[in-house]
């Protein structure tokens, strides 16, 4: 029990150990090369990183994710702030948003490939369409949920329009934006994995499925491990950003 309490203080290590144990049990239970052991997979992962065959695919996928997230945030946050503070803009844009948002964006992949080609751009645009609506609506809702008395209090202090945004509106909406971003990135990584199986020779999705097709299961699981670590890195960066820009949320915790 004492060991468990210590491990829970280091959540990442604790989670990693649990996954390795479950993975090893699955490996032994199936007793097949289809599910290699954690040790074999880690060795294959390290070798693939050293020889560069895996690192390139991870970097390409990471570039696509970072580019799409950055563009979606740059467009979605200002637009969401505008909709949240302007009822006329909200009335005009929200109906269109509600119609487009529920549509599975992966259905547009063939269209984007025709419009933007088979390279990075079509995949980046696909991810942008996923993240954009999440960020847009989260930002708008965050603005609308600011209590009216807080707005009046800020105005009574003599703050102008831009100062109100800087000291009240943006800080109030940041937690919602980051939560939406965290969810959107998870969905986007799954979609990117699918998109990278079409008309491309680079990307972690291609690496995993190509390894499966040529029956290289250790390399396939090494790719899955790489995808997991890349996703973990992205989420930890989001957590780090949240800790910096929403520091007041963690006071006393």
TrEMBL record:
Which cellular component appears as one GO term in the record?
plasma membrane
Establish whether keyword Transmembrane is in the entry. yes
The UniProt keyword set, sorted, is: Cell membrane, Membrane, Transmembrane, Transmembrane helix, Transport
* Record's keyword annotation contains Nucleotide-binding: no
Q: Which biological process, per GO, is one annotated for this protein?
A: transmembrane transport
Predominant location of this chain? membrane
- Give the membrane topology: Multi-pass membrane protein
Entry's family note:
Belongs to the binding-protein-dependent transport system permease family.
Q: What is this protein called?
A: ABC transporter permease
